[in-house]
Amino acid sequence: MLWITPPGVVYGGAEAVAKLLLSGGGAWAVAGALLRMPPIRWIAGGVYRVIADNRDRMPGGTPACALPAEHKLR
User: Fold this and answer.
1) In a domain, 19, yes or no
2) What is the pLDDT of residues 23-38, one digit of tens each?
3) From CA 29, how far away is CA 55, in angstroms rounded?
């Protein structure tokens, strides 16, 4: 996932999710702020990576969702 700001700053992964939640306001913004705080930020990054690497195996995923092995981060 990518979050691109109007000036063109790009955020990816769990940080992009946090930015999306922050932009939602209210309780969503609280969740987004929590995602940016250590150690939650570190955990969120790891969880995001596991989900992204296995997105073709998630409910609703298809083989088209799979990343080629050489593009997966380890």
Assistant:
1) yes
2) 999 999 999 999 999 9
3) 25
Its pTM stands at: 0.81
Q: Is 33 helix (H, G, I), strand (E, B) or coil?
A: helix
Separation of alpha carbons 43 and 55, rounded Å: 18
Count of structural domains within the chain = 1
Q: Are 36 and 68 in contact (CB under 8 A)?
A: no
CA atoms within 13 A on the CB side of 66: 7
**22 within some domain:** yes
Domain containing residue 31: 2-61
The DSSP H or E segment spanning 46 is: helix 40-53
Token pair belonging to 37: 């705080």
